[in-house]
Specification:
- By secondary structure, the chain is of the alpha+beta class.
- The chain has a single domain (8-92), classed as Orthogonal Bundle (Arc Repressor Mutant, subunit A), CATH 1.10.10.
- 56% of the residues lie in helices and 15% in strands.
- The protein has a two-stranded antiparallel ribbon with strand order 1-2.
- The longest helix is centred in the N-terminal third of the chain and has 18 residues, at 8-25.
- The N and C termini lie far apart (37 Å).
- Bound molecules: zinc ion.
Length: 104
């Protein structure tokens, strides 16, 4: 798997929206999100995704709780109210892009 996603800077906003979309359905953790994004054609390494999740938490879009299972701990992320607002706004903006031809 390549270390960096092609067109990373351009697409990283879409990746964050995708994370919000899933975190609105159920709590998500890093490896699950990496696999899910890969299914959609986004190849992200843990070194890219984990800092992205942390930043989204710091920015107030996600909340995080750690679940321990024996010696292993896993961080689960859930969408916040601010995240839901951002996601709803982004869906409106994306609709404006969708289906646009050359003259709009
Ligand atoms: Zn998905």
């Amino acid at each position: 798997m390549p270390e960096r996603m092609e067109h990373h800077d351009l697409l990283s906003g879409l990746v964050r929206l995708h994370i919000l979309h899933h975190a609105a359905q159920h709590p998500v953790y890093g490896q699950w999100m990496i696999d899910e994004l890969a299914r959609h054609g986004y190849r992200l390494s843990p070194g890219t995704l984990y800092p992205m999740l942390s930043k989204m938490e710091r920015d107030g879009y996600l909340t995080c709780r750690t679940e321990r299972d024996g010696r292993t701990a896993r961080k689960f992320y859930t969408i916040t109210e601010k995240g839901r607002e951002g996601l709803a706004l982004a869906r409106v903006r994306l609709r404006e892009l969708k289906g646009k031809g050359n003259n709009e």
